[in-house]
Every structure is written in C-alpha cells, then in structure tokens.
Amino acid sequence: MQKLLIQGGCPLKGEITISGAKNAALPLLCASLLTMDTVELRNVPELMDITTMLSLLQQMGATTNLRNHATIELSARYISNPTAPYEMVKTMRAAILVLGPLVARIGEAHISLPGGCAIGLRPVDQHIKGLQAMGAEIVIEHGYIRAQASKLTGARILMDIVTVTGTENLMMAATLASGQTIIENAAREPEIIDLAHCLNQMGAKITGAGTDIISIEGVKALHGVSYEVMPDRIETGTFLTAATATAGEVYLRNARAETLDAVLSKLLEAGAIIDFDHNQIHLVMKKRPQSVNLRTAPYPAFPTDMQAQFMALNSIAEGTALITETIFENRFMHVQELKRLNADITVEGNTAVIRGIQQLDGANVMATDLRASASLVIAGLVARDETTIDRIYHLDRGYESIERKLSSVGAQIKRVT
Ligand code: UD1
User: Fold this and answer.
1) Cβ of 414: how many Cβ atoms within 10 Å?
2) Which atom of ligand 1 is nearest to the CA of 328?
C-alpha cells in the first residue's frame, strides 16, 4: 500500500501546469460510443478513473490507442458486449455514463447499479427517468439496469434534481434520438459545455449547454472528431487553496479562471491576491488566511468537490467558519482525519463549524475519498512536522502526479510503499 509523507511548513512557490479535467474526460470517452468513426481526445489526464473507463470501453468491444502522453484514439465501430459490470461501476460511479450512448447507438445496455458510495447514496433515478421519457424500456434486475430501445424519440424532460452525469447521459442519448429533446433544470457545469462542444463537432445539434435548458435536435449519425479536453477546474482550485493555506505564490498554466468564479471569490475573501488572463492564474498570499463561510450548491455556486479543501484552509484561518454541504449527505469524512491534526471542527447535520487555530500538528491520517484526500494533503502542507497519508489510491483517481507537481513548487512530499 502506498502512502504520502509530507513535511509541512513550506510555502508553495512556482509554476504548475494544470492537467485535463477528469470530469470532462470521462463523459468525452463515453461519447466515442456514439459513432462508428474514430474519436481522438487530447489533454486526457493520466488517472486511475481514466484507466478504468478505458478498460470498460475495451471490454465492450471498443479499441483504444494511447497515441502519446495525453492523446487517446478510440474506435467503437463494433460494440459486442454492452455491459458495465459491478466490479467496474463500484470503483467508478461515472461508468453510468455509458448508459445513454449505448441505448442511443445500439439500443441495448446492461449497467450495474452504482449503489451507495462513501460520500452518499447517489441514486441514478434521473438518468433512468429521462431515458424512459425518450422511449427506452428499462428494468432493474439482479442489481443491473437493463435498457432496451429500438429507437429513442426526442422528449421534454424535467429533471427533479440538478445532476451532472444525469444531464450528460441524457444529452448524449438525445443526439441520436429522432426529433427534439429539451432537458429542463439541466446542470450547468463547464464540463457539460465541453461535452456539448465536442458532440457538436461530431455533428450533433445541441444548444443551451451551460444554461438550465438544453435543447438537442436528434441527427441520424455522428462522425469522428479530434478534441482537446478542458483544463481541470478542481485541480486548479486545489492548488490555489494549497498556495493560499501555505502563504505561497503560484502561477497555474493551462488554467481557466472563468470556470472558478465561486472558488476565486472565496480565496479573495480569505485574503489571497489573484490575477489571471485567458489561460493562467497567478495567486499570492502574504498573511494568515481569514476564515470563509461557504455553502456548496450546483454550478455556478461553490462546488462540493472543493468543500474539503476549504475545510483544511479554514482550520488554520483566523476566525470561525461555517461550511454547509448541500449536495452529498455524507461528505464530511475528512473532518475526523483533520481532527487528528488538531483541527477544531464540530459537525451538526450538514454544517461544519471550523474554529481556526494557528497551526496544525502532523499525524498519521487516512484518505477516505478523492477530495477528502486533497484536503489532507493541504493540511499536511501547513502542519508542523510530518504527516503520513494512507490509502492514497483515492487521490490517484483524480489528481495527476500530485506529488511531482507539489514538489516542483517547493513542497516536501514523497510517495512511499
Ligand atoms: C458529478 C461529478 C462529481 C461531483 C458531482 C456534484 C463527474 C464524473 N462527477 O457527479 O465529481 O461531486 O457531480 O458536482 O462529473 N442524484 C439523484 N438522482 C440521480 C442523480 C443524482 O438523486 O439520478 C443526486 C445525487 O445523489 C446527489 C446530487 O443529485 O445528491 C448531485 O449528484 P450528481 O450531480 O448526479 O453527481 P454526479 O454526476 O455523480
């Protein structure tokens, strides 16, 4: 089992290049199922979740070819086995993203139900409801979603809840349905815009992505594309928060400030000085951070995927902060671990009260989920002495070469087996 050892107390100083976005790359890989032609994706991050998704596509019959670092060529001309088995879906919930493309392209899919996961229940009822509205017949048996459709038909779908992968699944399915589909109460995340751009370049007719009403005019077939995945806004936000917590100065290349409004405004409130242009962000922090209250909510509000990192920041900030998590019911697992570093946090329902202290103390902690791991890294970077983080496979699901990137800006961090 691998661990990260961090010697705290070094301000982050220097340049980091941001990788392609995991949450954009995953649906884009699934979009390759929608066409007989080859799809080339550039700027794909090297992550465990990407490897898992590629294995899933391969076992369905697709061929995948790593052209060079970060460029992957996919061909789903033949789909022989439209199944996403339990073993894969349980490690990566985003596997549900093959459902819409499979039903739309070949009229059949067997996808394991994702079930519970560490951060909450995460049902997929909205994905199913939307596909049923488009005419798919869906039964749940033996823990699998079994979907069939001779042809999907455009429909008006009102989502009961704002769901990111739900919106993506239905948007992909609708590209090949006959007639028009309108998705209302759609999620507005930048990754949805990225997916829509790529699908449109493949010949789809999608308008409104990035707003809460997306309209898709179905077409007969989609064609191949070469497409560059957008930069990862959560990786960007994580490094900015780490630089703020350690009173450092970083230049993030290949970073898009316009996808991070809510996070940047909270970092400014904490005392960071930030400037940016179209492709990079510069942040400098010259003092102890001020505590910041926040509440997670669907984009463009503060992202749940940045909540844990801000918990670490608030633990050493001046003042007391309230963090309310409204998206996932069990996303405070990092609190117990942060407390091992002496953080002063109390949780009441879906709100955490964080009383900032001058300094955390290094300790042995355990990563419990992807973003929780990132908060422990930030805490380790600011803590006195050494912090050891166990179970870092969670981190490898979503952060490309995190210890290499952090070392390059002065962090004392290494991976040990
Ligand atoms: C995506 C992101 C994840 C992020 C999350 C919220 C990907 C691959 N993952 O996950 O990193 O944390 O958005 O920003 O993009 N829900 C239902 N029924 C459904 C679908 C969702 O009740 O059919 C609920 C979920 O339980 C959750 C909320 O809706 O409480 C939002 O979940 P959703 O947006 O679907 O998250 P994901 O798309 O899985």
Assistant:
1) 12
2) 30
Whether 117 is catalytic = yes
- Expressed in angstroms and rounded, the spacing between residue 122 Cα and the centre of ligand 1 is 7
Q: Is the dihedral of CA 401, 371, 308, 365 positive or negative?
A: negative
Closest atom of ligand 1 to CA, residue 93: 39
- When pLDDT is cut at 50, 70 and 90, the band that residue 205 belongs to is very high
Distance CA 360, CA 306 (A): 20
Of the candidates 344, 330, 342, the one whose C-alpha atom is nearest the C-alpha of residue 372 is: 330
Give residue 128's Cα distance to chain centre: 21
The closest-lying atom of ligand 1 relative to the alpha carbon of residue 370 is 11
Among protein residues, the one with the nearest Cα to ligand 1's atom 8 is 23
Nearest to 63 by CA among 86, 83, 79: 79
328 touches ligand 1 (CB under 6 Å): yes
Say whether the peptide bond before residue 300 is cis (omega within 30 degrees of 0). yes
Give 224's DSSP letter. -
User: Is residue 123 within 6 Å of ligand 1 at its C-beta?
Assistant: yes
Per-residue pLDDT reduced to its tens digit, 188-202: 999 999 999 999 999
What are the start-end ranges of the E strands in 192-319? Answer: 205-207, 213-217, 225-228, 249-253, 273-277, 280-284, 294-295
Distance 68 CA to ligand 1 centre (A): 31
Cα angle vertex 26, ends 106, 35, to 5°? Answer: 30
Is the distance from the beta carbon of residue 188 to the nearest atom of ligand 1 less than 6 Å? no
Instruction: Tell whether the torsion through CA atoms of 107, 110, 113 and 118 is positive or negative.
Output: negative
* pLDDT per position as a tens digit, 349-390: 999 999 999 999 999 999 988 889 999 999 999 999 999 999
